[in-house]
Amino acid sequence: MAKRSKLYKAQLEKYDKLKLYPLAEAVKLLKELPAVKFDQTVELSFKLGVDPKQTDQTVRGAVPLPRGTGKKVTIVVIADDEKPRLEAQEAGADFVGYDDIIAKIKGGWTDFDVLIATPSAMSQVRPLGRQLGPKGLMPNPKTGTVTDKVGNAVKEAKAGRVEFRADKGACVQVPVGKLSFDADALCENALAVVKALYKAKPASAKGVYIQSFTVSATMTPGIKVDPREGSKE
After folding, report:
1. How many CB atoms lie within 10 A of CB 147?
2. In 98, 149, 190, 201, which residue has its Cα 20 to 30 A from 223's Cα atom?
């Protein structure tokens, strides 16, 4: 077992590790834990009642956070037509192009956070899977990154859109802002994620969907949240 730091142990003493807290109370506790010198990212972690091995039980999606992420996002747009390229530029995309961007990525460039592509450009983008896939940058219609409405997609990503996907263990981790955000902003962002997660629930999933739910920051343990939180949203 990994040795816990003094900071970690001090944080654990501030709340009941076994209790399921309402979201607002969990966020309040998180903000009161002994802190570090940098602005930590706040993350939600879920264990879902799905079987990721079944193709009809994949959980994946994206949601714009109403209060943003607190992070500067670098956005690339690949489009094979002038009109969507102009829309992307006007919306604030950082890099816009077609053949030039594709060649750059083939050469190993992945220094960006979001890649948006038009459907007609995807025949040229798909072969970039070796470069993009491992970094989670491959455009996908389910996350809104394959679209003809590139202007809207860029604006959402700039404002604070986050993607989520269940891993092989049916776990999902989603950032919802910075610890410096006020508690109401973090709760609003968190509830938006929970709502999107329920919306992405596979029709074939049976039993309890959200089995566990925790909120944590970069250098803190997770505080357990009542898994029913947001289920009636």
Report:
1. 17
2. 201
